[in-house]
Amino acid sequence: MRSRNEAIAAVRAVAGEPQIIIAGGGINGIGLYRDLALQGVPALLVDKADFASGTTAAPSRLIHGGLRYLETGEFELVRESVIERNHLIRNAPHLVKPLPVWVPAFNWFGGIFSAGLRFLKLKKTPGAKGILVVKLGLVFFDRFGRKNRMMPDHRIVSRAELARRMPGLSPRVTAIAEYYDARLTHPERLALELVGDAERDCPKSVAVPYMALAGHEGDTVRLRDEISGEEIAVKAKMVINCTGAWADEADGRLGIDKRLIGGTRGSHLVMRRPDIARQLGDGMLYFETRDFRACLVYALDDELILLGTTDIRAQNPDTVACSEEEIDYLFDVLDQVLPNSKAKREEIVFAYAGIRPLPYSGDGATGAISRDHSLKTFEPEGTRRFPVLTLVGGKWTTYRACAEQIADEVLTRLNLKRTRSTLDAAIGGGAGHAREAAARARQVDDVARGNGLDTVIATRLVNRYGTRANLVAQAVAAPGGRDTVDERGLYHVGEIGWILANERVTRLSDIVLRRTLMPFEGAVTLSGLERLARLAGNHLGWSPERQAEEVVATAALLQTRHRVELGTAPVAA
Predict the structure, then answer these.
(1) What pLDDT, on a 0 to 100 scale, did the predictor assign at position 127?
(2) How wide is the angle at C-alpha 544 spanned by C-alphas 501 and 511, nearest 5°?
(3) What is the 8-class DSSP label of residue 129?
(4) What's the CATH number for 57-184+263-368?
(5) Which CATH number fits domain 433-562: 3.40.50, 1.10.8, 3.30.70, 3.30.60?
(6) What confidence score (pLDDT) does residue 520 get?
(7) What is the pLDDT of residue 122?
(8) What is the mean pLDDT of each run of 10 residues along the chain (573 residues)?
(9) Cα–Cα distance, 123 to 143 (Å, whole number)
(10) CA atoms of 171 and 214, how far apart (whole Å)
């Protein structure tokens, strides 16, 4: 992947020619960018921050079939979600992995009448669901997944197995249903790999982070470099607004005054709870709360768990953070299913929040707002001489289908026909990556033996980068490359150097929060940030003053937005 400076130079070179401009470097904008590239149609993708730094970085890190959307009668969305989930497991097996899910119910027959009303669309608000209603939903869920089957059908877990595997579960639980969805281990990396795939297949495509929409005049769009302050005027053939929670703001900069977004905030906590992680094992609890919301908890490793999520109306995506009230709420819902959990704030390792770009709907239960997507069209008007297509909604699991639908609209406007589908296109390091344990072990062995690395390091690299692990391993094996940069010894100098050279890093926070999983792994310290800044300075030409500024800014972001406690212990070599 070319550097950011090279990408900006490429934008300047074509600024006088009409461009397809995609505003928003989240998963939906990136998905569209990748789809158009596969058709040989170049586009200019810009985001006012880093790629995948907004809502895309704040999901429950699941690729899921949307079981709860059956409750609101969104059968087509569930069918689409299940199909897309199964294809993502095939296309990105290094990052998307099957996940057993346990759904506890507190009674057998509750919610049958209410569920029928919601099914008939006579009632919108969610309600209590007994195990029979859950089972009925899973019967439909299984049928949707049989076309490109990747998962076993659901089952009801026996009391004996329940007592053996999760002794801490609430005695109020009557029964548990098990089904399979998928876990997305690193959403920001998957998004970045899609950018790389697009630019490989269509070299005229250009994606620039930290490049904001500044305004428009006639047939041009003004783009502002958020790092240097420079503005570039680019002729626009059309603009596709995929900025998600920022869609109304971006439309406003293009002369469109219409409210489309009514987002809700979803917050998550990463907590150090080895006792709960042991009980969860490789599975997830997906449970209904007293206020009929859906929450979840699963283990990230042997010590850390992920707990979420909330669903609160919110307005400003630029300052979104998990509130004290949300922490209290999440602690309370955890106690509803694991009554001896007794969660404490000092157990929080990392907190994050994002705003779902849902359609504006006025009052009503947030859980009843559709999670489906739609495309609003604004033809040339007034001083704006180009059309704007604005995406409302969109979710991680169905990003590819959403992008395909938008790309087809773009192709129609260009009088072009689709030549290929992204449905079966491998993503980044997923190309050729082994899904079976034995074959994956051979991949790890090849990386380890071929580069003189131990199996622990090789395993981490294969899990992070798939079939591209060998490229990173070569950098780690180089002189000085094996030195670690974080407190837990999970990342190496050579790996960070490879990221800096190949992944369009612009700010220190890009490395910490998106190119790696350091905060999720409890691997961030102040001394670690300083070492990362020095490495970035060496690769990107940052002055000592710039390095210090980046450390201060990233530390403040981690502490104020993400509740990360930064120690000052020296980093072990």
Answers:
(1) 56
(2) 35
(3) -
(4) 3.30.9.10
(5) 1.10.8
(6) 93
(7) 46
(8) 95 97 98 98 98 96 85 81 94 96 83 53 59 85 76 87 88 91 97 98 98 97 98 98 97 96 93 96 92 92 95 87 96 95 96 92 58 89 96 94 98 98 97 92 97 97 97 98 94 98 98 97 94 97 97 96 76 33
(9) 25
(10) 57
Q: Give the separation between CA 248 and CA 389, rounded to whole angstroms.
A: 12
With beta carbons less than 8 A apart as the criterion, state whether 430 and 95 touch. yes
Distance CA 280, CA 183 (A): 14
Helices 75-91 and 399-413, axial angle in degrees (round to 10)? 100
Q: Which residue has tokens 């439309």?
A: 251
Eight-state DSSP code of residue 351? E
Fill in the amino acid letter for 38: L
Q: Which residues contact 157 (CB under 8 A, 6 or more apart)?
A: 102, 175, 176, 177, 178
Nearest Cα to Cα of residue 397 among 164, 21, 84: 84
Say what the pTM is: 0.94
Distance CA 515, CA 373 (A): 28
Q: For domain 4-55+188-258+372-413, which CATH number applies: 3.40.50.300, 3.40.50.261, 3.50.50.60, 3.40.50.11740?
A: 3.50.50.60
* Rg from Cα positions in the chain: 23
How far, rounded to the nearest angstrom, does the alpha carbon of residue 222 sit from its chain's CA centroid?
A: 28
Q: Which two tokens stand for residue 242?
A: 């995929």
User: How far, in Å, CA of 192 to CA of 242, rounded?
Assistant: 16
Give me the pLDDT at residue 365, please. Answer: 52
Partner residues linked to 299 by β-bridges: 305
**125: Cα separation from own chain's centroid:** 27
Q: Is 120 left (phi over 0), alpha (psi -120 to 50) or beta?
A: alpha
Cα–Cα distance between 37 and 197 in angstroms, integer?
A: 9
Q: Helical H runs in 355-492?
A: 399-413, 437-451, 455-465, 469-477
The secondary element (H helix, E strand) that includes residue 233 is: strand 231-241
Could you give the C-alpha distances from 561 to 100, 200, 566, in angstroms and in order?
A: 31, 35, 13
How far apart are the C-alpha atoms of 267 and 345, rounded to whole Å?
Answer: 15
CB 154 within 8 A of CB 138: yes
SS3 percent helix, strand, coil of the chain, rounded to 5, is: 40, 20, 40
Measured CA angle at 463 (ends 459, 464), to 5 deg? 120
Rounded CA-CA distance 62/85 in Å is 9
